Amino acid sequence: MTGLLIALRILLGVTSLLLTLLILLHKGRGGGLSDMFGGGISNTMTSSGVAERNLNRITVILGLVWIITIVILGLASTYGWA
Questions:
Q1: Confidence class for position 27, pLDDT limits 50, 70, 90
Q2: Is residue 73 a contact partner of residue 8, using CB atoms and an 8 Å limit?
């Protein structure tokens, strides 16, 4: 059981890093911090709709894996499965 928990902790770390990177890759919606980091300039260089949709799908799936991993680790901590 401890091997599974170690694997889940590693999965949580990897998904956290990947989720952060994927969120930063998203196109800014205008205003706010995205313009401060050059988001306003990218209006002329828009990405294709397919690439943006795929990025959205991957981000949502990775977010769900991240949430499920946190819930399982929380249950393991609560019920002492370690």
A1: confident
A2: yes
Q: For 25-29, 42-46, 75-79, which range has the lowest pLDDT when averaged over its residues?
A: 42-46
Q: Which of 25, 13, 16, 21 is nearest to 51 (CA)?
A: 25
The DSSP string of 29-66 is: -SSHHHHHTTTTGGGSSPPPHHHHHHHHHHHHHHHHHH
- CA angle at residue 61 from 58 to 63, to 5 degrees? 105
**In degrees rounded to 5, what are phi and psi of residue 59?**
-65, -40
> At a CB cut-off of 8 Å and minimum separation 6, what does 46 contact?
27
How many CB atoms sit inside 10 A of residue 76's CB? 17
> Whole-prediction pTM value?
0.74
Residues 38 and 1: their CA atoms lie apart, in Å, by: 47
Q: How many other C-beta atoms lie within 10 A of the C-beta of residue 17?
A: 10
